[in-house]
Amino acid sequence: MKQIIFLLGFAIFMMFNVLQINGQIMQQVTGAGIVNWQDQIIKATGIGGPNPNSPISSQRAGAIRAAKMDALRQLLETVQGMQLTSETIVRNAFVENDVIVSKVSGVIKNFKQVDIRYLSDGSVEVDVEVPISGILRNFLFPENFKFKKPEDANFEKTSSNSTEIFTGLIVDARGFDIMPAIAPKIFSEDGNEIYSVAAVSRDCAVQIGFTGYEKDMQKANTNERVKGNPIIVKSIKAAGTNKTDVVISNSDAAKILAAAESMDFIEKCKVMIVLD
User: Fold this and answer.
1) Which residues are registered as beta bridge partners of 83?
2) Whole-angstrom distance, CA of residue 228 vs CA of residue 230
């Protein structure tokens, strides 16, 4: 039993291994590509070899086609391996929804080729990327996600109780090995949800993403999502099965909720999480 638990934990670690390359938060999906959570880009490298039964003049073109097909497969595997919430990856959320898988495949077929390498054995490596754009994100939020209803949103809010206007929220979550996800949650220490899909506009979540990630506090402060005068709080621990959720103090939670009553930064997904 202990061995099974260890292997399960190891498999989860490998599937969601988060790398730090050149100051970027990268999620390596085993056997597939990489998710750059800061720039919201998925990258993959496809490899294709020449068909020795084809005419020599067409072998390179065939190798390029094979590399692109391999890259497309890896992109799809990467999307399916992304952490959706702390408990669910994208693949598990849509395990029986072939329509969604088909739509996602249709989006990533429009990948951008960023580099190509011709190897001495005749094989080819192709680097490709695709943005986690509004179109792609639109298909990644399951139907059971209960976003804030449009009729409940009020984007004309202004602060009536304070002269201080907040432009967003930054949670300093460094030191807790928190993992990135498409839709993480923020909890108060007594377990109340401070930030979740129920608090945001679906349109905003699709357009700019549910939350932004950074490694550097200064970069987070100047990020277009929150820049101006964001509320800055410190997490006190990680939460959730795969540690994608953040817990903050009750006093910080009260400050955020009080400001959110008269301002729109929560509804508009103006939230950044700073990770190690």
Assistant:
1) 89
2) 6
CA-CA distance, 240 to 254, in Å (whole number)? 21
Q: Which two tokens stand for residue 224?
A: 């277009």
pLDDT tens digits along 119-131: 999 999 999 999 9
- CA 138 from chain centre, in angstroms, equals 13
Neighbours of 58 (CB within 10 A): 12
Give me the pLDDT at residue 260, please. Answer: 87
Looking from the CA of 249 toward its CB, the CA atoms found within 13 Å total: 7
Look at residues 258, 239, 255 and name the one whose alpha carbon lies nearest to residue 247.
239
* 141: Cβ contacts below 8 Å, ≥ 6 apart: 147, 182, 183, 197, 202, 205, 206
Average of per-residue pLDDT values in the chain: 87
Backbone conformation region of residue 263, classed left if phi is above 0, alpha if psi is from -120 to 50, else beta: beta
